[in-house]
Amino acid sequence: MGRRKQQRQEAADDDDVYVARNLRGMPWLVWLLFETPSGFAIFSFNSYIFEEENAIELWLKQFQKFEDKSAAINCTTGLGEELRDMLKIWCRRGEKLMVGSQEYKEIIEADQELKVMWGIKNLMHILVPEEQKVLTKEERLPINNDIVETACYLYHCDFLEKRHSKGLHMSDYHLLKISGLNSSEWDTMKLVTALKKITRPGEEIEHPPEMFSSDELLKIEKDADKYKDKIYKTAVSEIWNDLVCSYSIKKEKLRHMQFLVEAAEGGQSNW
Ligand SMILES: *[C@@H]1O[C@H](CO)[C@@H](O)[C@H](O)[C@H]1NC(C)=O
Ligand SMILES: *[C@@H]1O[C@H](CO)[C@@H](O)[C@H](O)[C@H]1NC(C)=O
């Protein structure tokens, strides 16, 4: 296992574990394991939603792609290590975990390590991920797997951005001290682009023209060499690549989501 397992735990670490820890000891909290075409998502919600059909508050906690889903949960081999690790972050002994099928219920119940309770319900109509809420005005939109998976991607892009944001904002201090730039409210993309410009002076770095004011650009260019030893070129470049990729996925997935939602709404009015 070694490296792979360690990487996986790092991926799930920090933010997820921190959030999970703060959710301990809340008896009304129920977990939901949802399968999407390429992976699994874990949601949490308040159990009172079953009493009040309309008061739905469902939160996407984690989405993970699985290369081999049949190894993740399988009636002969049981629960795979990867999926078990993912569940263990969120779900503690005795807590409720809902799954979408009788088969999954049996596999998870048989797992000696997890010992969670189970529930089963038609999950489709309660799946309204955060992003989705913004996009639909229609309360009873039929949610399908594609919508859930797309929402999971969007969640993941946001997650990545949040994760990098903390580290990047550690440079606020230098930007203020060296260039008099107050970057505390800059979004992650603006900040990483500024840092990339600083660490690669003279290079053409693409960004929307409205991202920086001319004063900001001037200061960034003028002071670039004063940031030596303060900002790490390689780290900034890696984060920049990561975020640029994530932004383009996000744009594409948002467009796709719009399409899926419109299709679902259209389908609905035809019926
Ligand atoms: C369970 O795992 C076995 C062995 O890896 C595999 O042959 C089988 O297709 C899997 N079952 C399902 C339902 O995916
Ligand atoms: C930077 O801007 C934020 C918000 O505009 C403000 O709250 C903060 O005090 C500013 N920091 C400095 C050092 O001026």
TrEMBL record:
One of its GO terms (cellular component) is small-subunit processome. It comes from the Eukaryota. The chain crosses the membrane at residues 28-50. This is Os08g0537500 protein. Signal peptide: none annotated. GO terms for molecular function: snoRNA binding. Coiled coil: none annotated. Keywords: Membrane, Transmembrane, Transmembrane helix. It comes from Oryza sativa subsp. japonica.
